[in-house]
């Protein structure tokens, strides 16, 4: 058996040639494997202490005839299964995003089309709110009159009819129901408004042309980039560095555990609590060789969660993303480690 080292690498391959060419070992197999330290071995036998390593069976000319994969531990098998599951989730996420993008592009021809559609929806919301406001005003006045009638009867020491008491209770119930319906309508309107704003930003991003993006003056302004959580990559090297820096940013601010990490998507797990936020990064192609990194922040799908996502705290995290990437890249250029956010 022969072992690799810096001084005898040439001897190994020379010896391998003799082993393979020797008639005395013509019927024997020659194995090649690498141990944990990266040392390469050639031999016609695999010692028991090295049997767990993956190996290749070589022909007399050095051609690989067969490959035996390295034995995997239970933990490695479980990790591989988890990796495959994450990849399936990633594929679903990307497919879902593509479907949404396709729907946006097929539904609208311009930003103006989107804004007109949003305006129509908001006008409908306002009309429905006016109806609720009118009902609340009417029920409030009705309840006031009913209570005044009861007060007048009690002042005159007259019995209050049960029908009147029942009418007051019914008015109270209807008033509360209408007030709750109005609050629900307002919350739905706010949620729709946030979704529409995100769709407008996404549509604008998808419809940017190569011609628009090549001149520096056409790249989104600092204000727009901060508001949208965008970082424009000047080249592949910078984009790869920014991607790793962005991963630290995502893990630092997310209150949930990491879920997906690859060269196109970094995503932490969905928020299980109202106080949780989950960040994700997407590396999105603008055109051949040009990319933008998009930061997204998700909150739990609840009133409290949605309020958190609309809060100054979350907006501040988003707006700090581009500056943090730039500062960290500058520090790396000076051979200094990128700081924590």
Q: Structural class, please? A: alpha+beta
Sequence of strands across the biggest β-sheet: 1-3-2-4-5
Please write the CATH class name of the largest domain: Alpha Beta
Tally the beta strands: 10
- Do you know the CATH architecture of the largest domain? 2-Layer Sandwich
Terminal Cα span: 52 Å
Q: How much is the average pLDDT?
A: 80
| CATH fold descriptor of the largest domain | Alpha-D-Glucose-1,6-Bisphosphate, Chain A, domain 4
Main beta-sheet annotation: 5 strands, antiparallel
Instruction: Supply the number of helical segments.
Output: 9
Q: Flag low-confidence runs.
A: 2-13, 23-27, 209-218
Helix content: 55-70%
Q: Which outline best applies?
A: elongated
Radius of gyration: 34 Å
Beta percentage is: 15-25%
How many independent structural domains? 4
- Following the backbone from N to C, one meets helices and strands in this order, namely EHEEEEHHHHHEHEEEEHH
Describe this structure in words.
With 341 residues, this protein is an alpha+beta fold. The protein contains 9 helices and 10 strands. The strands form 2 sheets. It has a 5-stranded antiparallel sheet, covered by helices on one side. Strands 6-10-9-8-7 form a 5-stranded antiparallel sheet, with helices on both faces. The protein is elongated, with a radius of gyration of 34 Å.
């Amino acid at each position: 058996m022969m072992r690799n080292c810096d001084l005898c690498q040439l001897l190994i391959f020379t010896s391998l040639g003799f082993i393979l060419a020797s008639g005395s070992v013509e019927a024997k197999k020659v194995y090649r494997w690498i141990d944990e330290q990266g040392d390469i071995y050639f031999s016609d036998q695999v010692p028991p202490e090295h049997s767990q390593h993956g190996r290749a069976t070589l022909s007399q000319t050095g051609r690989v005839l067969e490959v035996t994969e390295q034995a995997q531990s239970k933990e490695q098998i479980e990790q591989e299964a988890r990796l495959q599951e994450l990849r399936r989730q990633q594929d679903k996420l990307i497919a879902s995003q593509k479907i949404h993008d396709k729907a946006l592009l097929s539904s609208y021809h311009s930003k103006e089309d989107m804004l007109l559609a949003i305006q129509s929806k908001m006008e409908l919301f306002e009309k429905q709110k006016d109806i609720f406001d009118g009902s609340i005003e009417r029920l409030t006045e009705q309840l006031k009159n009913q209570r005044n009638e009861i007060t007048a009867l009690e002042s005159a020491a007259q019995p209050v009819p049960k029908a009147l008491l029942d009418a007051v209770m019914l008015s109270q119930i209807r008033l509360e129901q209408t007030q709750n319906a109005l609050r629900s309508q307002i919350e739905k309107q706010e949620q729709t408004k946030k979704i529409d704003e995100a769709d407008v930003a996404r549509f604008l991003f998808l419809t940017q042309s190569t011609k628009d993006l090549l001149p520096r003056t056409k790249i989104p302004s600092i204000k727009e980039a901060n508001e949208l959580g965008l970082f424009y990559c000047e080249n592949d090297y910078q984009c790869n560095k920014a991607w790793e820096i962005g991963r630290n940013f995502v893990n630092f601010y997310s209150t949930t555990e990491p879920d997906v990490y690859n060269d196109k998507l970094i995503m932490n797990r969905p928020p299980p609590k109202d106080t949780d936020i989950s960040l994700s990064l997407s590396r999105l192609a603008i055109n051949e060789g040009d990319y933008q990194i998009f930061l997204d922040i998700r909150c739990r799908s609840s009133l409290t969660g949605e309020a958190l996502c609309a809060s100054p705290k979350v907006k501040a995290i988003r707006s700090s993303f581009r500056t943090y990437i730039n500062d960290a890249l500058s520090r790396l250029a000076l051979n200094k480690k990128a700081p924590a956010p």
